[in-house]
Amino acid sequence: MRGRSGDPGQEVKGEAQKDWSRTLANWLGSPAGIRLARDLQFRSKSEADRRSSRVPPCPDEVTAQARAISIWQPSEIDGETVFRRPEPGPWGDHYASTRVLKVSKRPGQKRICFFGESVAAGYLYAPHLTPAKVLEDQLRAVDTQQSYEVIDLARTNETLKGLTNTVESALQLNPDLIVVFAGNNWVLLETTEMSPYVPSMNCRVGYAQALEQEGLLGPVERASRKLLEKSFAFFDRLARMAASKRIPVVLVIPEVNLADWENRQPVAWLPESGTRLWYEHYERGMKFLQQGAWVEAAREAHEMIRLDGYTCPTSQRMLARAHLEGGDLEEAKRACRAELDANQYATLGFLGAPQATPMVQGILERGAALFGFSTVDLRRNFQRFSPDQLPGRDLFLDYCHLTARGMHVAIAGVTAEVVRLLSRMSRQLEWEEVARTVPFPEIDPRAESATFLGAAIHNAHRLLTVGRKTDIIEHWCERALQASASAEDAMANLVAIRLDPGQELHRGHLRNLQSSCQLGFQHGLRYEHLDCDLIQAFEAVLKRTGNSDAVANLLGRQPGGSLNVDLACPRNLWEPLERFYPEVIASQDPPELAYYRSPWPASSFALFCCGSSDVELAITARLPAPSEESCAVRGCIDVEVNGCRTATLSLTNHWKKVTLSLSREHLVPGLNKLTFNWPLPQWRGEEALDRAIRRLQRGLQADIHPVFGEVAEIIAREY
C-alpha cells in the first residue's frame, strides 16, 4: 500500500492527509478554499448554461397547471387552487401537519416558506410545537406593523435532492422569503456510495483505490469533495430559483449537542500492532476517567489520537471528557469539534447519528457568502446565549433535535433576520432582544411529557458513550414524569410491548393510543429489541419517585413457559447498535448473517429470567482469523454477569460449542447483563487492510475494522 497513514517514511504526507476532515471548514475560508468554491460555482453556472434546455424551468416559465408540493397534492376549492395533504397514519409521518396550503395570500401579508430536515420539522415535539410555529409567533410578537404567514415544508430524513424539488415546487405559493434549516443529514445521507459496504462494484472499487492510495482518510477526502460539489450545486440552484422571483434566502447553520452526545466508534485497522495498542490505551483511559484522574485520562487519549491519526472520534471524546471534567471548557470544546470531524461516514463501524460537522457548517457559511444568502449561525448564537457551557441538554433533546428552549433561541435569530429583510420597522431588531423579551413557547404538559420520553428513547437507542449513558436517559425520564404523571402509564405500556411483543403487541399499542401521553412513530415506539438501558432507567427513576409498582410487576413476570431463548439473536443484544452498521439496517447486500459479529472488544447480551434458578448457557462461538489461509488462532474470553467475572472460555477460529453454568447467586429477577470480553487482535493492521482492499477491488464487501469475536448462538435454559 502507498501513502497509508502512519507508514514509515510517509510521516509528512500522512500528517497532511490526516488533517483533511479536521481542517476543511477552516480551509473553506482561506484563499484556496474560496477559489475552489468559486470555481465550483462558475462551473455549475456554465454547465447549466450549456444544458439550459434540460434545466427545470422556474414556475413563471411553465404552464399554469399546478403540480404537487412534496406530499401536498393540487386540488381546487371554490375555484381556488390549493394543495391537500394525505391523512397521516395513527403513528404519524415525516411531514408537517398542515392539511391545506393555499396559493392566495391576504392583502399585505408576507409569506415565508420554511424548509429543512428533522430539526426544522420539530422532531419529537411536532405537531404540537415546531420551529415554523415558533417563528410565526415571534414575528407576531415583535412586529405589529406587518402581517406574516409561515408555511412549514420541513420534513424528517430530507436530502439535498428532495429539498431542491420541494423548494422549486413551493414557488407556486409565491413566498416572500425562504428559510432553509439543513445540514445535519448531509454527512450520512449525501455520500452513501463512499463505503466498503455499498452494494455496487464500481463504488467498492473506487473505495479500494482511495484506501490504497491515500490510507484511511482517502475515502473521507473523496466523500468530502463529493459533498462540497453537491452542496454547491444545491446553493446554485437555490440562488437561481430565488433570483427568478427576487426572493431573499436565509440559511440557518445548525449547531449540535456537544456536551451530552458522544460518537463512540471502533478504530479501523492501524499499522503494525497499532489497533491492539489503541484499545489498551482506551481501557486505561476509561479507568482513569472512572477514578477522576483527568490528566492521566487526557494522556491516554492523546496516545490514541497519535495512533489513529484523527480517524476515530472515540479518542477525541475521551479527551473532551477529561478536559470537561477537569474544568478546561475551551479545550473540551476543541476536542468535541475534532470528534465531529473524525466521525465521517466513509470510516464508520457503528451506525452514526445525524449531526452537522464543522466541515458542513463551513460549507454552509461559505456557500451563503458566495451566493448572497443571509445566515443565522447557531454556533455563535448558542455560544452567546450560554457562554459558560457547551451546548447540551438545555438546548438539545438528543444529537441535534432542539428542546423548546433551543427552538426559541434558534428561531430568535431567524425572526430578527426576517424583520430586517421584510419589515417596515424603522429600527434594527437584535436576536438577543427577541430571545429575551418574547415569551417561551407554551406546550401542553402531556405532549411535552411524550417529547421528553421520546428523548429518553432516542438517547437509549442511538447513543454510544465513552462510559455510561444512564445519566442522560434518566434525566429525560425524570423530565417526562415532572411534566405529566401520565408518563408513568406510557412507561408501563412501553415495557409491556418490549418484554412480550407477541402477547402484548395488540393490547400495549391500544393502551398507548388511548393514553394521554401517547408515543408515536417519531418517539421510537417501533423497535425490535428489548431496550435494556431504557427499561432499567424506567425502573430506577420510578423507584426514586416511589412509583415503581407498575414497571416492577412487569419486570418480575416470568416469560411464558420455561426459559429457552437464544441470547445471540438481535432482539437480545444489550446494545443493538454495537454491530457493523449494514447488519443493523438489514440491507439486502450484504445478505443478513446467521451469526453475530462483534466490532468491539466487549459484547453484552440480555438475559431475562426469574433469578431463582440456575441457568445453563450452550454457547457456540469462535475467534476470527485474519484470512482463510491463516494458521489456527487460539484465545480466551472472560465472561461477566452483571459486571462480575464468572468464567473464562477457551476458543479457536473454528466453531466450538461450550456449556457454562450460571449460579442463581449471580442472577437477579428480571434483566441480567451477560458480557463477553474478547481478546485483542494480534496481527498486523496493514496486512488486514491489504486483504480488505483486494476484496473491494473484486467488488466484494470488506471490513476495514477488526472483528473481535463471532457467536452463532447462546441458548439459555433454566434448570
Short summary of the structure?
The protein has 719 residues and is an alpha+beta fold. It is 43% helix and 14% strand.
Fold blueprint:
Layout: H1 11-18, H2 20-27, H3 31-50, E1 73-77, E2 80-84, E3 100-102, E4 110-116, H4 131-142, E5 148-152, H5 160-170, E6 177-181, H6 186-189, H7 201-214, H8 217-245, E7 249-253, H9 274-291, H10 294-308, H11 313-325, H12 329-342, H13 358-371, E8 374-377, H14 378-385, H15 404-422, H16 431-437, H17 445-462, H18 470-483, H19 487-499, H20 501-514, H21 532-544, H22 549-555, E9 564-566, H23 581-584, E10 596-598, E11 602-609, E12 615-622, E13 634-641, E14 644-652, E15 656-662, E16 670-677, H24 685-697, E17 709-718
Parallel strand pairs: 4-5, 4-6, 6-7, 7-8
Antiparallel strand pairs: 1-2, 2-3, 9-17, 10-17, 11-16, 12-15, 12-17, 13-14, 13-16
Helix pairs in contact: 2-13, 3-8, 4-15, 5-8, 7-8, 7-24, 8-13, 9-10, 9-11, 10-11, 11-12, 15-16, 17-18, 18-21, 19-20, 19-22
